[in-house]
């Protein structure tokens, strides 16, 4: 699933004029960085998001677009579908 997120982020970079390879590297580093902060500090992902979002800044505008598109529900639904399918495929 995360490869789809990574690809979507890199596609956005390409759409904004960044080379494919640079966009992939930037997207990958963004995911690695956010994950590392959560892992190393023990902070809730929402705290990390809040610390990156300044009033009327670039990050909060991006978060707003993600929320408008239902990103949280889509990710939760993907996890649910994955677990259900794994259960269906598990030997009984």
Folded structure, characterized:
With 92 residues, this protein is mostly helical. It folds into 2 domains: 1-42, no CATH class; 53-92, ProC C-terminal domain-like fold (Orthogonal Bundle). The chain has 5 helices and no strands. The longest helix has 22 residues, at 20-41. It comes from Stichopus japonicus. One of its GO terms (biological process) is L-proline biosynthetic process.
Q: In angstroms, what is the radius of gyration?
A: 16 Å
Number of discrete domains: 2
Count all strands and give the number.
0
Biggest sheet overview: none
Spans where pLDDT lies below 50 across 5 or more residues = none
Broad structural category = mainly alpha
Into which percentage range does the β-strand content fall? Answer: under 5%
The helix/strand series, from N terminus to C terminus, equals: HHHHH
Distance between the termini: 26 Å
Helix content: over 70%
Family: Belongs to the pyrroline-5-carboxylate reductase family.
GO molecular function: pyrroline-5-carboxylate reductase activity
GO biological process, one term: L-proline biosynthetic process
InterPro entries: 6-PGluconate_DH-like_C_sf, P5CR_dimer
List the keywords.
0% strand; single chain; P5CR_dimer; mainly alpha; 92 residues; 5 helices; ProC C-terminal domain-like fold
What can be said about this structure in brief?
It comes from Stichopus japonicus (Sea cucumber). Helix content is 80%, strand content 0%. The protein has 92 residues and is mostly helical.
């Amino acid at each position: 699933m995360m490869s789809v997120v990574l690809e979507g982020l890199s596609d956005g970079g390409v759409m904004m004029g960044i080379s494919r390879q640079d966009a992939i590297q930037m997207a990958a580093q963004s995911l690695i960085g956010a994950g590392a902060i959560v892992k190393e500090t023990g902070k809730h992902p929402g705290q990390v998001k809040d610390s990156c979002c300044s009033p009327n800044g670039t990050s909060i505008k991006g978060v707003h677009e993600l929320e408008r598109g239902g990103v949280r529900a889509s990710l939760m639904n993907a996890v649910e579908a994955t677990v259900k399918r794994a259960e269906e495929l598990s030997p009984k």
